[in-house]
Design a protein that fits this description.
Radius of gyration: 19 Å
CATH architecture of the largest domain: Alpha-Beta Complex
CATH topology of the largest domain: Quinone Oxidoreductase, Chain A, domain 1
Largest sheet: 7 strands, mixed
CATH superfamily of the largest domain: Medium-chain alcohol dehydrogenases, catalytic domain
Order of helices and strands: EEEHHEEEEHHEHEHEEHEHEHEHE
Bound molecules: NADP nicotinamide-adenine-dinucleotide phosphate
Structural class: alpha/beta
Distance between the termini: 11 Å
Number of domains: 2
Helix content: 25-40%
CATH class of the largest domain: Alpha Beta
Strand content: 25-35%
Number of strands: 15
Length: about 325
């Protein structure tokens, strides 16, 4: 099969690999599309270096194929698999989506939402799941600010917060204003003109470029500040350092900082499917790239040129 093959950190090429064999609890997927996000870049580059120490491979990447978000058709089921059969259309996460075939544990797969293309479905799992998990405690009528609202997680964050009945302010740069407005934000702030004002019950920070004191100032006294990620940290720990610093502040401040670590799993993807099928959530896919240009797709996201989501189609 054709696949993007990655033997060393920071280096990958289109090549040929054997079709993988599904193990117990896994299915073989004929991949139709693979979502791209900042995490894909982290696992291609091996940066920040912390990713090499937390299980993704010290000397080189453990997975020979990058790509985590996936949609496709079940081609074969492994031992002990129930609930899925060949021909089923699914979406979820795996290790190695940038390929014609991949294996995925059924604990990380759900049925593809009705009405979504494979490209749209592949744009959902990690970004949509992270937004859903970050906004769990939102109640109707609360004020929510989504920072980085025109990015992958943020574009779902705006829609999930609206679905929960919140008053939503989306904060983004000029090129993303139109998208964020179209996603249903009550207010859209172009921070290149003026930074956001007001106080919020919950801030979903997907941008990571504001100081913790600035976030606290924009939060109600008992508000929650969910730190999704940051690309502004150093080469060793990246955005983790900022989130750890924030959590360490919790005993001393009235607001609550939450360091979000999303867990990609079938139950969350099923919740997303229900929201999508109810018309409350729609992936904002800006662009698709063919498999042969998968690395360009990752670069498009890494260089901050993407708006909403980017997908590789196979
Ligand atoms: N905690 C978790 O489990 C989890 C899960 C998924 C992702 N993440 C992390 O969360 C962050 C957001 O992910 P994403 O997929 O939404 O990324 P994305 O699509 O690149 O969106 C991030 C948005 O943040 C803004 N931004 C501000 N400063 C930035 C900077 N220095 N570099 C890049 N973007 C910047 C950009 O919007 P403007 O151009 O409008 O400023 C961009 O649209 C990333 O750091 C990612 O690694 C964490």
């Amino acid at each position: 099969m054709k696949a993007v093959v990655q033997r060393r950190w920071g280096s990958a090429v289109l090549g040929d690999l054997d079709v993988p064999v599904p193990g117990p609890g896994e299915v073989l997927l004929e991949v139709r599309a693979a979502g791209v996000d900042m995490g894909t870049w982290h696992l291609l580059s091996g940066k920040p270096y912390l990713v090499r120490f937390i299980g993704y491979g010290f000397r080189g990447p453990k997975s020979p194929v990058p790509g985590m978000d996936v949609s496709g058709v079940v081609a074969e089921t492994g031992p002990g698999v129930t609930g899925f059969a060949p021909g089923d259309e699914v979406f979820g996460t795996c290790s190695g989506a940038f390929a014609e075939y991949t294996v995925a544990p059924v604990s990380q797969l759900a049925r593809k939402p009705a009405g979504l293309s494979f490209a749209e479905a592949a744009a959902v799992p990690i970004s949509g799941g992270t937004a859903l998990e970050g906004l769990r405690e939102v109640q109707a009528g609360q004020r929510v600010a989504v920072l980085g609202a025109g990015g992958g997680v943020g574009s779902y964050g705006v829609q999930v917060a609206k679905a929960l009945g919140a008053h939503v302010t989306g904060v983004c740069s000029t090129r993303k204003v139109e998208l964020v407005r179209s996603l249903g934000a009550d207010e859209v702030v172009d921070y290149t003109v003026a930074d956001f004002t007001g106080t919020y019950d919950l801030i979903l920070d997907c941008g990571g470029n504001r100081s913790l004191s600035r976030l606290r100032k924009a939060s109600t006294p008992r508000g929650t500040i969910v730190l999704v990620g940051a690309e502004t940290g150093g080469a060793i720990t990246g955005g983790f350092e900022r989130a750890l610093r924030a959590v360490a502040l919790n005993p001393f401040v009235s607001q609550k900082f939450v360091m979000l670590i999303s867990k990609a799993r079938a139950e969350v993807f099923d919740e997303l499917r229900v929201l999508i099928e109810a018309g409350q959530l729609k992936p904002a896919v800006e662009r698709t790239f063919p498999l042969s240009e998968a690395l360009d797709a990752v670069e498009h996201v890494y260089s901050r040129r993407s708006i909403g989501k980017v997908v590789v189609t196979i």
